Amino acid sequence: MQKSFLVLVVLICSIFSNLFANESYSKKDIEKMISKMVILGFNGENVSSKDEIYKNIKAGLGGVILFDKDPNDKNKVKNVRNKEQLKTLTSQLQAISNQKLLIGIDQEGGIVQRLKSSDGFVNTPKASEVALKGETFAKQTYKNLAVDLSESGINLDFAPVVDLAINKNNKVIVTRGRSFGESSSEVIKYSSIFIDELKKEQVISVLKHFPGHGSSLADSHLGFVDITKTWSEKELEPYKYLINNKKANMIMTAHVFNEKLDKNYPATLSYNINTNLLRNKLGFDGVLVSDDLQMYAISKHYDLKQTLTLAINSGVDMLLFANQLAKPITLKQIVDVVYAQVLSEQISLETIIKANKRIDSLLAK
């Protein structure tokens, strides 16, 4: 009887403790924490106090992603005209923020480099070419890339790709030369060099695309991608090595569906993949960022509320909206939806707090 009473007392204290902890956060506090979990794309070569992105950063936005060209008009500059202009833009962005702002870009090399030699930046060969030329070449190549990013005020590179070149007909990774090779040892060797050179220049690397996109037959930019029959567990090997060797500070999820790993959801929205597999089984304790949530593999199948709720509950810490479409998603839309879901207990406040702690820990490094 006495033991049962003690258990009841402990349970009641725990409930009240949690309620008290939640009540200690104001609406503004929670909205700021949600804002920190967002990375947004925007249009503009410079920033003034009248711009929406200025207001977003003041509201606590976690990061931005930059692009060279506007995809809706290839003749129009989106964010990057040349090196001097980019330095000015990144300085403006960083000066607005009360915390360290993540300023990210896709700079892999080859077909995926937003900073182009024609605009005064170094040219970086594609990953498959780098791997053919050996380690010395790779170190110099990625050192040059890292210095370019650092000098330009960019502190986050959505690279390297650690997908294995398994499917030779894969049009999004393999045929574009974005993978270092078919064997995990090659991918580990060259992605490690890439990560180390970025780290020397205090640029955060992002491993992508978890749990592996190199065996896929389709492109998640365009729609649903099912890798159930093509994916194999060896695609996890680069992640295992890089996590165990403290080289994985940030990982990007892929919008790929694998029935063997989750019968209902693609990786970006899957608790089983992002928490059970990546965090619990592989031991990843860094920041998990989504791939662009406006890509059709997600946006054609889920509305904004479903996407945000499932992604956050799955274990995603940072939500990427590249705003490459004609109609951009605003920070207010995201924050309002997530805040409402916190109030209705569809998303726990504890999940938001944990994500913020991981982001703070990353920034502190």
Describe this structure in words.
- The chain is an alpha/beta fold and 365 residues long.
- The protein has one domain (27-364): Glycoside hydrolase, family 3, N-terminal domain (TIM Barrel), CATH 3.20.20.300.
- 43% of the residues lie in helices and 12% in strands.
- It contains 13 helices and 13 strands.
- A 6-stranded parallel sheet has the order 9-8-5-2-1-13. Strands 10-11-12 form a 3-stranded parallel sheet.
- Helix 2 packs across helix 12, helix 9 (271-281) packs parallel to helix 11 and helix 11 packs across helix 12.
- It is globular, with a radius of gyration of 21 Å.
- The N and C termini lie far apart (51 Å).
- The relative contact order is 0.11.
- Residues 1-21 have low confidence and may be disordered.
Give the strand tally: 13
**Helices and strands: which structural class?**
alpha/beta
Mean pLDDT across residues: 92
Sheet with the most strands, sense and barrel status: 6 strands, parallel
Strand order of the largest sheet: 9-8-5-2-1-13
Unreliable stretches: 1-21
Annotated CATH topology: TIM Barrel
Alpha-carbon Rg, integer = 21 Å
The CATH superfamily name is Glycoside hydrolase, family 3, N-terminal domain
Order of helices and strands: HHEHEEEHEEEHHEHEEHEHEHHEHH
User: Oligomeric status of the shown chains?
Assistant: single chain
Sheet-strand content, in percent, reads: 5-15%
Q: Span between N and C termini?
A: 51 Å
Tally of contiguous helical segments: 13
General form: globular
| Name of the level-1 CATH class | Alpha Beta
